[in-house]
Input
Amino acid sequence: MERSEVGALVRSAVDGDAAAWKAIVEGLGPLVWSVVRAHRLSDADAHEVYQTVWFRFTQHLGRLREPEKAGSWLASTARHECLKVHRGARRLVLTDDPQLLDRVSEDGEPEQSLLESEEAAAQGERVRRVWQAFEELGDRCRQLLRVLIASPPPSYQEVSAALDIAVGSIGPMRQRCLRRLRARLEARGTT
Output
C-alpha cells in the first residue's frame, strides 16, 4: 500500500468508515504478521500479539500525528509486543519433570513464613517503640547516644571533642542516658 493511500484510509477509519478499516487490516495485516513471525513466537503467542497490536492501533487511531506512517507504527508496536512476550517467557519456564514439581519450596513451609512475618512485624514494633522513647530523652542524651552508636564507634577522645564533654564524664553520662531510656521502655511494657 502507498503511504498516501494508508493516510487516507486511516483518516476515513477515524471517521467511522468500516470499509476503510477493513482495507487497513487487509493491506497492513501481512506486515504485522511478518514482524510477529520474525520473532519466532509460538502460534498462541503470535496470535495474541497480532490481536494486541490491532487493539492498540484502535486505541491510538485518532491520535496518530502522521496517519500515512501507520504501517511503521504497526510494525514498531508488533516488535515491542513480541519483545514483551519474550521477556515474560524468560521468567516462566514450563516443566513436566516430577523431581522439580515435588521439590520442597526454598521459601519453607507456609506456616514458617507466617511465623517469620509475625516475628518481623513484632520486631519492627519494638524498634519503633525504642526510637519513640529515644526521642523523649533530653537533647544531650540523644546527641551522646547517637554519636556512640556510630559505625565504626568513635573513641572517647573523638566523642569528647565532638560534644565538648570531658572524657571521664562520657561513661557515666552514657549509663544515665541508657537507664532513662530503659525506664521509659519499661513504663511502656517494652523490654
Observations:
- The longest helix spans residues 110-135.
